[in-house]
Request: fold
Amino acid sequence: MAHLTPTQRFAQYVKPMESGCHEWQSTIRRDGYGSFWFAKRQALAHRVAYVLLVGDPGELRVLHRCDNRRCVNPDHLFLGTDRDNVRDMVSKGRHWGRRKVTNEALSVIRARLSAGVSQQAIADEFGIQQTTVSRIKLGQRAYLKHNI
Ligand SMILES: [Zn+2]
Reply:
């Protein structure tokens, strides 16, 4: 069997539901979150989805808009702090929009580029294609969001 990229391996376990959620079909942890072997450890599946499809969340938590812990649809995920998480449980009113999240991912990638990191190394790090990194370098848009 051909070697699969992390994104291809991840996509094998994603099942789109009528609700719009993409439910995780592999290991589900006792707390209800999906689990996926990524970067040499067991990671939260929805967090991996964010890393692969949007960008590195860094220190921030990846939270669900949809309250479905098995869901790995990046459109249903947003970034926040632990404090946001608590607040989110009280009210769904405050969250960061997708546009801002995408811009954050872009700024991280641009910082890597200006630091001299190769396009292929960045592509591998984010689980995206080298041509995507090339487009980012050229200032083109609308590429990080892609279906799995
Ligand atoms: Zn969802």
Summary: The two ends are 20 Å apart (CA to CA). The chain has six helices and six strands. Residues 90-101, 142-148 have pLDDT under 50 and may be disordered.
